[in-house]
Specification:
about 140 residues, alpha/beta, Nucleoside Triphosphate Pyrophosphohydrolase, 5-stranded mixed beta sheet, about 20% helix, globular
Length: about 140
């Protein structure tokens, strides 16, 4: 069965994107997000995931796109979100670190498909659909 993920591209006033470093495989950096839960809308899911991983309260903006990786039965819905506020946050078993990074100097390691989602959001793309092969996503 296909897994549905929801991820947020969140930019600060300097145009830097919020990234999180995972404490679990596949380790490395990504944007805040995760698996959509049963009976949850994509918008509610991305709001929940961003808060759980960063402490940020966000408002969902535009739909950047839908990203498919059929080789691993994965579908990602990507939104651009804006920050409303933040509660205290500290690293935990899921997320080791949170930070804003220039789109031209993203942290490593970061999967290629994550970088594509970030660049799509940063360039203002909206409502796009992309399918990745196994070699493109790494």
């Amino acid at each position: 069965m296909t897994t549905i993920g929801v991820f947020a591209s969140i930019f600060n006033q300097a145009g830097e994107v919020l990234c999180v470093r995972r404490n679990y495989p596949p380790y490395g950096w990504t944007t805040p997000g995760g698996r959509l839960e049963d009976n949850e809308t994509p918008e509610d899911g991305v709001i929940r995931e961003v808060y759980e991983e960063t402490g940020y309260h966000v408002q969902v903006g535009r739909l950047v796109g839908v990203y498919s990786a059929p080789y691993k039965a994965d579908l990602v819905i990507s939104f651009e979100c804006s920050i409303l506020g933040r509660d205290p946050w500290s690293a935990d078993d899921e997320i080791a670190e949170v930070g804003f990074f220039s789109v031209d100097a993203l942290p490593a390691p970061m999967r290629a498909n994550t970088q594509v989602r970030i660049r799509d959001a940063a360039s203002g793309k909206q409502g796009i659909s992309r399918t990745f092969t196994a070699t493109e996503a790494e």
